[in-house]
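Quick one: structure tokens for this chain, please?
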Amino acid sequence: MPTDLTDLAQFKDTAIELGVNFGPKVLVALLILAVGYYVGRWIAGFLEHRLEPLQLEPPVRHMLVRLARLLVVGLFLIMALQNLGIDLLPLLAGLGLAGAGIALAMQGVLGNLVAGLTIIFTRPFRVGEYVAMVGVEGRVEAIDLFSTKLSHPDRSLVVVPNRKIVGEILHNYGDIRQLDLRVEICRASDLERALAAIDEALQANRRVLREPAAVVGVSALADKSIGIAVKPWVAVPDAVATAGEVNQAIVANFGAAGVEYPNAAREIRIAP
């Protein structure tokens, strides 16, 4: 029993000694962390307000704000650890080794991140524009740090990893597209009446843009037919619907104007 009392007394004395020696340091460290937390929040809010007039992409703005907050909190964390008397060199060395291992294990993720930053800062396309790249196309719905989301004309969502975009050929249509329609008429038909019928079909369609003006002209000549290119400009969401409407209107106008289509060529060979 005396031994137990002695051990208890030693434990009590040790606890009191540790409290006296390290208690104030712990309280100061906690105070430093609390101050760092609120300073980080203030810096983040101030930076968010200052970045709004620059019209940066939302992912860039959020990333810069979070990075600034993390840097501030990290600085106050280092100050708190130094106040506790902790040697930071071994800790930093360990974090460096762990970071190298994580980087090797996440090469694909980091590649998407770097590519995302490249896209955001160089701005080869923006949200709302229609693009074609790496074998897919669609309207840009979101540009994130790791992927880009496209809405396809068939109403599906296409998610493209950013590392697949950087360094590849990209076709940016913007917010309007030029349709590439073609029609053939018989050489015996009146070309002027055919062009007038096509122009009437384009003028009657409310989806066809008046500016830029549609391009209509002879594109090919054959023995029995004349090829006419019809290339009106439309808004990106109207591209598919407008193509069908214009073709249907041209068929109706050709019928009313007496414009004929070329007869199908057939080659008949009689074996001896």
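The mean pLDDT is 78.
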